[in-house]
């Protein structure tokens, strides 16, 4: 399932409703702000930058998130795995 978040406030409100939670407009705005890519990229509690200090990744080779391009997984999977992944509905 691919969801385009052109209206993130609406999506956050729908998720809250689905979960049976009531949220204020301020809370929705705060969630949208905290979960935007640029903010999360700078947040050391979610961007795994502490892995660099432990030598668990090479900062020059790894990034916080990969670019979200549909079907881009075909570049990183072997030919045997691609059909298995794309056939899932």
Concise synopsis of the structure shown:
This protein is mainly α and 89 residues long. It has 5 helices and no strands.
Report on the structure:
By secondary structure, the chain is an all-alpha fold. The protein has one domain. It contains five helices and no strands.
Annotation keywords:
89 residues, mainly alpha, 5 helices, 43% helix, flat
Output the number of helix runs: 5
Shape: flat
The fraction of residues in strands falls at under 5%
The residue fraction in helices comes out at: 40-55%
| Order of SSEs | HHHHH
Which stretches of 5+ consecutive residues score pLDDT under 50?
A: none
Number of strands: 0
Largest sheet: none
Over the alpha carbons, how many angstroms does the gyration radius reach? 17 Å
Mean pLDDT across every amino acid position: 77
The number of domains is 1
The assigned structural class equals mainly alpha
Distance between the termini: 8 Å
Oligomeric category: single chain
Write the layout of secondary structure elements.
Elements: H1 8-18, H2 25-34, H3 37-42, H4 50-54, H5 81-86
Helix pairs in contact: 1-2
């Amino acid at each position: 399932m691919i969801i385009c978040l052109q209206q993130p406030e609406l999506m956050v409100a729908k998720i809250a409703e689905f979960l049976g939670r009531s949220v204020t407009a301020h809370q929705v705005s705060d969630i949208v702000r905290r979960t935007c890519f640029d903010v999360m990229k700078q947040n050391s509690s979610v961007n795994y930058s502490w892995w660099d200090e432990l030598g668990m990744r090479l900062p020059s080779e790894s990034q916080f998130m990969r670019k979200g391009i549909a079907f881009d997984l075909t570049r990183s999977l072997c030919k045997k795995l691609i059909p298995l992944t794309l056939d899932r509905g």
